[in-house]
Amino acid sequence: MQTDPEAAGMNPRQLARIRAHLETRYLEPGKVAGFLPLVWRRGHPAWCQPLGMMDRERERPMREDTIFRIYSMTKPVTSVALMTLYEEGHFQLNDPVRRFIPELADLRVFRSGNYPDFLTRPAERPVTIRHLLTHTAGLTYDFMQHSNVDRAYRRLGVRPEPAGDAREMIRRLAGLPLEFTPGTRWNYSFATDVAGHLVERISGQSLETFLRRRIFGPLAMDDTGFTVPPESVGRFAANYERGPDKRLRLIDDPQDSPYIRDKTFFSGGGGLVSTAGDYLRFCRMLLGGGSLEGVRILGRRTLDLMTRNHLPGGADIPAIGLDTVVERNMDGYGFGLGFSVNLGPERTGTIGSAGEYAWSGAASTLFWVDPAEDLVCILMTQLMPSGTFNFRDQLKALVYPAIE
User: In this predicted structure, what is the pLDDT of residue 255?
Assistant: First the structure.
């Protein structure tokens, strides 16, 4: 990718600090195998430089077209997909989910106890589509290690792989209580997987087919999908975690990964692989008010609705969230329909702009879109879990001072 910092209105010397920071702090000490940072502003790529290795075991250097597991950066894509159906008049945000998924009609709220002997109470209101998109539905994740409810998720295999397909996952969810009454708290959860299944129920297509036809195809996101085809495995990055000795440990070999095999569950919450270039096209569509290069995916006013804070009372995530936040430092960030939303630098305590929206993935990938600065930033890497290092705030401290 040919970069032009000056055309983007950015200082190349300041942007060069991105490489120095990532190399000296993470690559040289062996904390991370490789990075691909990308900065886009005012219609121009300002910075894009592969750093380190995409596959340390095979000594394959990072490439601009490396394919990454983007995990929860799938969520904004699924949310956009669902909102395209909103624009066709299929639902309103305050419609109960049970209208389309009747299996979720009789959910109750946890009071006490352990599975299968829960004490529950009736929910004061049903789960709505808005609740799913804002993570206020009362659902949770199996890996949270927070409550007796997520313990039951683990026991019953409430996650994509054991469930086999979305309908089976819904069946398992329907038998368990909610963490709280919908709309009262924020909790990161399988809500976007349920939203992805809503896309399937409403459209009559698999989520994979719907995303390919309605988003990936029109935006020419050719390397984005739920699997890596055989001809592209050589560009697929290895995935790592830090072991107890703080050394990198391979946890998903690209040559023997679940992502190179066919799937029956298309996880709207975390199932996609993509490249920095492909995800940039998705972000440029968002920055363009729902349109890119003459292709409109979503209406401008719909996107405006999605990127406002929908949390009750204008709260930020820590104010009403359970203690299960995956990202570091969510002070001053609200949540919209699929994105975190910056409520202002004075509330976040970090450099940036009010109204920027973002999210991240479990392997430490991240992105944000800043309409005020006409800016997109993406960081691709493969280190689990997310939050091991605070890449987002570090990258922001490097990128924003480069704006001239």
Answer: 97
